[in-house]
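User: Could you go from structure to sequence for me? I need the amino acid at each position, not a summary. Structure tokens:
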């Protein structure tokens, strides 16, 4: 019981990656079993058009309900899985689930797309575009049905190869967006040189936009500059209407956050679409 509670405490209350925690051991040794036993699932958070208030797409977010530790935070288990091959297995699972669902949900919205998060090790594999193309064929879906979210740090691991692969993804029709924009060190001059379609402005800038003037300037100028460069903008972490209104005033294109919806379990998505399209 104690081990259970302390592991859970680690999961919930520390942001650090202690390599000796029960969590690390559980992730590294338990992933295969978790996948085969259905402990992993994917939830879908709506991305809403700021102008119309209608659903423009979803972000797929992985969940792991561990039999011993309970729900694990993806922020933590992804970071551990990224140390090894586990991240490929997780990504494979998330993309397959997403494509299987898109097959069904596209009957309701024909041009629906879902964004998936892609880690450096996964993106930078030369075979990655081929693997994705194979999966799209398997499900008979166009590249346009998925979007890939990469962080600035992913690009900086190997900028040359990253551009090559993003271009290959583009040839399949897959759009790429920069996730958590503003938390890394890439300049807009660098971003401009990349074949990407949108910036997702990090929640840390959006959350206190009503009271923090510095973040107001950062967010409003990022939106302006992104538009000048022909990029769409998405704001993450919008939790109230006043924040939404301010972002609308700034011209932000899409909104993601608890104000509209928390990530939805798969079985709630069709109902959501029927109410919000
Ligand atoms: P992210 O890609 O930036 O995803 C957005 C996170 O913000 C999600 O947390 C989402 O639930 C949360 N969020 C959205 N709106 C709000 C809001 O209004 N308020 C607050 N407080 N939070 C909000 P989640 O699902 O815990 O995921 C955390 C991170 O884990 C993700 O950040 C992403 O970096 C990573 N992750 C999740 N699923 C995957 C995956 O399948 N593959 C990879 N590589 N990473 C993933
Ligand atoms: Mg993301
Ligand atoms: Mg994000
Ligand atoms: Mg984030």
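Assistant: Here is the amino acid at each position, in order:
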């Amino acid at each position: 019981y104690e081990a259970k509670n302390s592991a859970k405490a680690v999961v919930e209350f520390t942001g650090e990656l202690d390599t000796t925690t029960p969590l690390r051991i559980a992730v590294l040794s338990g992933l295969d079993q978790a996948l085969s036993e259905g402990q992993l699932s994917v939830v879908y958070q709506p991305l809403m058009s700021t102008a119309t208030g209608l659903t423009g797409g979803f972000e797929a977010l992985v969940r792991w309900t561990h039999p011993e530790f309970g729900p694990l935070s993806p922020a933590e288990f992804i970071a551990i899985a990224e140390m090894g091959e586990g991240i490929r297995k997780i990504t494979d699972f998330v993309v397959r689930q997403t494509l299987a669902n898109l097959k069904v949900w596209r009957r309701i919205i024909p041009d629906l797309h879902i964004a998936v998060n892609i880690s450096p090790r996964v993106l930078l594999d030369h075979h990655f575009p081929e693997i994705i193309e194979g999966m799209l064929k398997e499900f008979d879906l166009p590249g346009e049905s998925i979007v890939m979210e990469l962080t600035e740090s992913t690009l900086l691991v190997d900028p040359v190869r990253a551009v090559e692969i993003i271009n290959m993804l583009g040839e399949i029709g897959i759009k790429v967006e920069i996730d958590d924009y503003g938390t890394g060190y890439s300049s807009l001059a660098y971003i401009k040189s990349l074949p990407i379609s949108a910036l997702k402005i990090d929640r840390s800038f959006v959350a206190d936009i009503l009271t923090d003037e510095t973040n107001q300037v950062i967010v409003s100028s990022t939106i302006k500059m992104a538009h000048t460069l022909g990029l769409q903008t998405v704001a993450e972490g919008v939790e109230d209407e006043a924040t939404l209104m301010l972002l609308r005033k700034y011209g932000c294109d899409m909104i993601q956050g608890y104000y509209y919806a928390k990530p939805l379990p798969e079985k709630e998505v069709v109902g959501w679409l029927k109410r919000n399209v």
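One structural detail worth keeping in mind: DSSP finds 13 helices and ten strands in the chain.
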